[in-house]
Structure formats: C-alpha cells, structure tokens
Predict the 3D structure of the following.
Amino acid sequence: MTNYAFFLGCITPNRYPGIEVASKKVMSEFGIALLDMKGASCCPAPGVFGSFDLETWLALAARNLVIAEEMGVNIATSCNGCYATLQEANHLLKHNPKLKDRVNESLAKVGKRYKGTIEVKHVIELLSDEVKFENIEKKVKKPLKGVKVAVHYGCHFLKPSETRMHGSAERPTVLNDLIRSLGAEDVDYKDRAMCCGAGGGVRAANLDVALDMTAEKLDSMIEVGADCVVTPCAFCHLQFDRGQVELNEKSGKKYGLPVVFVTQLAGLALGMDPKELGLGDNAIPSESLLKKIQ
Amino acid sequence: MPPILKRQTIQKSDKDFVNEVIDLGSKIFPKEDLITLRACLQCGTCTGSCPSGRRTAWRIRQIFLKTLSGLRDEVLSSDDLWNCTTCYTCQERCPRKVRSTDIVRVLRNLAVKEGHMRPEHVRVCEIFFKYGHAVPINEDTKAVRKRLALSELPPTVHMYPEALKEVLALVDERGFRALVERKGG
C-alpha cells in the first residue's frame, strides 16, 4: 500500500465531494491510500491570493505542505489550482534558501517549520506513473465503448512547463492515453488547450468574461459530438458544470454536456456504481452519458 | 486609432517602475526570470495567444510596453489587469522567454499595494478569513457528503478549529488582513 496525503482544497470537498470519493475509491483499487490532511486550509487559491500578495500566498501554502511533511508522505491533489499553488510553492521554497528562511520565520509563529522533504503530485501523475495505464486497462470491467470524450487538461497541470515538467504544454497526451485505456474515444476539438475561463480571479470578478471562454470551449466540444467533458481539475469541473447553468440562465441556451472528473470516469470503467461516484450530484445531469455506458 | 503612448504621457513616466517590478518579483521568483521583462521586443505573440485578449481590452503586450515605459499609474490602475486568467499560454510561447504570467502576478501585487482591488476579490479574502476556505461548505454539500458516506465536514480547517486559528495567525503575521481591508487608494 502506498500512502499519499490527499490535499482536498475547497471545491472538491465543499462543492464536488464526488471527486473526493471517486479519487479515493479508484486509488484504493490499485493499492494507493489517500490519507486525510488534518487541518489543511485553502491551498490558497493562486488566482486571488497569489495576485494579492505572493509572500502571504507562499506562507499559507507552506503551512499546508508542512502538514504532509509531518505525515511523512507526498501530496496528491485533485484540482489544478491546488496543484498550481502547492507544487509551485514547494518548487520555489526548495530552490531559494533565503525565501525558505523568510517563510519559516512566519511559520515559527504557529510552531511549524518547512523542510522541503516531500513532493506534490496530481492524481493524473498517480494514475500514469504509479498505477500505469496498462494496469488500469487490465482492471476495466465496463469498457467505455463508443463514448466520445472531450478532454480538458486545464492550464495549471501543464503550465508553467519548466516547473511542472510534464512535457509539451501545447500537445499533451497523458489524459488522452488514459481515456483510451478506459475504452473510450478521445475526440479532438478546436483550441483544445484553451483555458476554461475561471482562473486568475476572473470567475470571481468578471464572470461574463469567464463564461464567454467556457461557452467557446463547450461549443467546440459539442460540435465534434462529445458525450461528456472530462477534467482533472475541480475548479475547471465547477466552471464547466455551474457555468453551463449560468450560461443557460443568462443566454437562454440549452447546454447539457455532462462534466466528469477523471477519477469518476475511471471509476465507471472499473465497474463502480455511478451514484457512489457522485455522478448524480452535478448541476448538469449525467444521464445521457450513463445511458451510453449501460 | 490614437497612439498607445502619447508624448505627454511618456513625459510623466516613472523610470524606476521596471526596477520596482523586478525587485519585488525577485523576492519570490529567481531574478533572472524577472529581468526577462527587459527582453520584450513587442512581437505580440503573447497578445495573439491570449484567450482573454480575444474578448476583452486586456493586451498583455501593451502592459509590458507601458511597464517598460514607466507608466506606473496607468498599468497598476488598469481594470483589465484583472482579466488575465493566468493560463500561461503567453509565457509558454514567448520567443524571448519573458516570464509574462509571473510578471502579471507581480504587477497585480503592486496594484493591490496601491489599493487597486476588485471588491469581489476582497470578498473572497473575507470568506477565507472566516473559514480558512475560499469556498466553504454549505448545507447542500453536507447532505451530498453524507450520502456519499463521507464525513459531513471535510477533515480540513472545517473540522479542526485550532488549525483555523493557525491559518489566521499567519494571515495576521503577514499583515495580509490589513492589506486587504484597507480602503482603496
């Protein structure tokens, strides 16, 4: 059994707990335990807190990192935003001793000390590097035959590429490979690498701008006949799910593209009950997709 | 179309602004990343790649021109500075390797110091000051968590009030609450 400290963040536990439960179930199927990080806070969100004051953002991120350091295990995240903050903070602190000392001065006030002993991973990395797709393929009970998946990577899993080190940010393949290992078809669509619109504090302050970007992506996915959009990011997940409701309310359109988190899709292919994976808890119903699978 | 930079505005320029940006940014990022700002040759790959620039007046190339020209107030008070989703596409594609998204974050930090904050973002901070989460739990999600056999409250600061105190102590130690709650300048 490999243990990871599961960094929940905000959107996963407080809006889409299906992401939490699906990630735990799928990982445990492959001998990975996602452990609680007791007392973790918001990562804090890179868009608002990083934009407001990078040093505070870093100190709060370091506190979360220390929780995992004290547990003696690496972190796993289910949100590109949390990944962006914690992975970058860890990277910056490991490479800049002066910065580390300054942050530790702040942390000393709450009796904590950052050491730089752990790594921050994304659940995609756990599936691709630790579990490996060929092993997932072997365990697939319900191949997602005929299901057309529009993959949305989200920005911060891949970029900045010098820090994330997952290869090409322009033409990534890891999620497409995963989708195919589950028996589904990954459909290409216009401007696939484009942002969902939510990041950088734009969703909070300029919702119409964020939604305009979301609509462009949704239109491109629908145009190629996608049955669902699959994301590896709780915040993108929220933007596509709540965003469709908001777009329908604002524009009178009738968006209804199911939004599925990557571990939820894996869970379906492994034969898990859609309800137990939280697929019934999105704002946009998943029925049209589930019918295709049965 | 009027010129982006008028002679009069250039005369009001703050020659130290670029250094201010580089110095503040270098506290967090490697200095060699920040000085890439000086390498911008205004090719426009950034603006051409920007999804936000396709639907708003946000022009990242223009922001760099203005920053290099020392138009401090214009840059920091710009509302469009907050239309960047930090997608990093510009930074990835820049042929001069300008760390554009990192620089945008530094510019925003300076804007906030000057009191230029969107009330919606201040609200997000206030929620964080109360709960330790930018998006806290609600009754609907509690019910979903229960149904999914998860603890009603997640094992975060929501479940551990002592941990929330720690978070808020850090916020105060950094003077962050005072920064956010200050009236805009």
In short: Chain B touches chain A through 67 residues (CB under 8 Å).
